[in-house]
Amino acid sequence: MTILSGPHLWPASRAGATLTVDLAAIASNYRLLCDKANTAVCAAVVKADAYGLGAEQVAPVLEKAGAREFFVAHVDEGIALRKIVSAEARITVLHGPRPDAAAECVYFDLRPVLNSLEQVDLWKKEVIRQQGALDAVLQVDSGMSRFGLSLKDVQTLADDPDCLKGIRTNLVMSHLACADEPKNPANEMQRQRLLEMAAYLPSAPLSLSASSGIFLGSAYHMGLVRPGAALYGIAPNSDETNPLKQVVRLQARVLQLRNVDAGDGVGYGLTYQPQGPRRIATVAVGYADGFSRQNGGMGCAWFGDIRLPIVGRVSMDSLALDVSDVPEALLHADMHVDLIGARRSVDDVAAAAGTIGYEVLTSLGGRYYREYTE
Q1: How many angstroms separate the CA atoms of 74 and 66, rounded?
Q2: Which of 71, 123, 201, 278 has its CA 20 to 30 A from that of 243?
């Protein structure tokens, strides 16, 4: 295992916690998703700085593993990514062009997703300005009511072919609202609606599935799949065992140890008051580090095989653990415990906080010392 230096503000010895990102696991997850998608092109979604894990480190690993298509949310993310991946890689911007950024899309070779008639018109004006055809993706709203052209919009484009003149439509896409619920009938409804709406548009490969949709079966793979969270180890659904490798480990530093007696309060609001004597560790991770306040009294950490409940409220810069089950000889200030690791996945942390793994990953703060292994 090779440990690579990552971006950080201070040395590991001065950081409150270390976040380790397993790049080999990301590459392995990508290859598994490629196999699952069979003949469909398997893109890689690296928006939000590769879900908070560092696009500068993650994207080259994905490209080396075979990714040639990358998706980001914003134009600026695409510009940053263009400096990281090879010139041959195609970068698609999900939010499409903004009025003041269409020229940048052309200059940095970014393919926009056109989500509305206004964006179609904006891109058409850029086609005229560039005096040449330009690539684009058309997104249709197949039922999520979020992004995409409505049926009426699609019919408008079909009735006036000049609307798309000079726009090379090389992908028609939509997005599943309930892909993490395999039995939800909305999945098939959206698949059928995409097929119906695409019939009005120029012939092009179709794309409907992001991470969870890949596991719905070959009918949902179409021409291209767009995994994001699955690359980073998030479970595609809760009905089955997660087939993906865990990618992150969060090791927090213990700042202080203390003994508390029955009835003593711990943390803000004194919400935790033990029934008997307990050993409490104060740990240098809090909600300012992206570890949600909702974990208070719900989540846990691990020290080897020993579970350490989080007690009391999570503070801005710290939280408290009950370490009473750890042998006294092993307890010391500056020891490390796993808040995320082999025994507690990102999904586990999310469940305790009443959220989803996506939010946990993208919230992990910038104060951690970061290591990348491959």
Answers
A1: 23
A2: 71
Task: State pLDDT tens for residues 214-248.
Answer: 999 999 999 999 999 999 999 999 888 999 999 99
Q: What is the pLDDT of residues 110-153, one digit of tens each?
A: 999 999 999 999 999 999 999 999 999 999 999 999 999 999 99
The token pair at 108 is 């940095």
Please give the Cα distance from 270 to 297 (Å, whole number): 12
Distance CA 270, CA 330 (A): 28
Q: How far apart are CA 91 and CA 82, in angstroms?
A: 8
Within 10 A of 175 (CB to CB), how many other CB atoms are there? 23
Secondary structure class of 323 (helix, strand, coil): coil
Residue 266's beta-bridge partner residues?
272
* Inter-CA distances, 148 with 90, 119, 173, Å: 21, 10, 9
Instruction: Please tell me the distance from the alpha carbon of residue 125 to that of residue 148, in angstroms, as a whole number.
Output: 20
Q: Are 370 and 21 contacting, i.e. CB atoms less than 8 angstroms apart?
A: yes
Structure tokens at 123: 């891109």
Contact 214, 225 (CB under 8 A): yes
Residue 110 and residue 74 in contact, taking contact as beta carbons nearer than 8 Å: no
Residues whose CB is less than 8 angstroms from the CB of residue 76 and which lie 6 or more positions away in sequence, other chains included: none
- CA torsion sign for 272, 274, 277, 278 is negative
CA–CA separation, 86 and 227 (whole Å) = 20
